[in-house]
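Mods, move this if it's the wrong board.
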Amino acid sequence: MLTASTEQTTEETRAFLQRRVAAFGLWGGGLYLFFWLFRMVVVAARGKTEFLLEPSMNFHLLGGASLLAVWLLCRSGVRTPFFVRAVEAVGLIVCVGFTVAMGAYIPLLAAPYMIVLMALTYGFALRSIYVPSSARRTLFLCATAAVPILIGIYLQYLRIDLATWSRVSGYLKELTESEVAMEVTMNTAAWWFCSTAVCTAASRVIYGLRREAHEARRLGQYTLLRKLGEGAMGEVYQARHAMLRRPTAIKLLRPEKAGEKALARFEREVQMTSQLTHPNTVTIFDYGRTPDGTFYYAMEYLDGANLEEVVELEGPQPAARVAHILEQVASSLTEAHALGSIHRDIKPANVILCEQGGRYDVTKV
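Not the wrong board. Structure tokens:
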């Protein structure tokens, strides 16, 4: 059974995947449309308007449309990871098919196999950057794309007119049409192998960095969510426990900022504070050190304003409210003093006014 924290983590992962796949579809489709418009402008500028509707232009447009369809299907709503991955894979392979078809109508003099390779290499590299994917999945998609690429190039170069092309290259006089097609196909396979290696490596590195970044945000059972503040000795983060639902704040104290002696003293004070049970004292849930020596402690997350902020915003407070707040502060300190603990920094900024259980001005020290 999934806990609330696990469900929230799963939802964040799903939403992140959907956003990144949608972004890939938008950028990839946008780049295809940019080059389609560029070709349209060049053809129109040369007065060759009859080429505006040639098949290569149409397939170029359809290639961009297939990626934009990925964006449209993933840009909004709540999509399951299976749906997002399926849309990404189908959209990408359909785009490969249209790109290969585009190349089939580009004159051989323009080296269509290189145009197809360049367009698809850019597309798959963009995917490796945007879409969180394992190296294995990227390798699978690249290998799948290789099938229509190599078949399309081979069939296209089977139609080569050797009588004409042999005037350009004497080397072709020694080959048959099928041999030329096979040689170009082998060259294409070698280049696509390089593209596959680059895209797979990119996915491996970027996916690994994402996982490392996620792990870096974890302290044991706690996941850091956002920074709440920073002081001379460390930072405070809002955090989430892997199993429990209670709001939590994590304070990190780094040795390079505070010094080992100061951290040792602070650790002893936190251990003593964790024994306090007064409702007006902030509750310490946990404490420890990370492998790199950073000391941290987890405490209840206080959703409220400190007394200094209240006075700055509202000015002098009514006597009854001041007495109510001071009574709670004194009560908290009484328990601490009884256990031999002395608060060394009592000031308005360290007195938090919260709403708890429907009660206002619940004071936390």
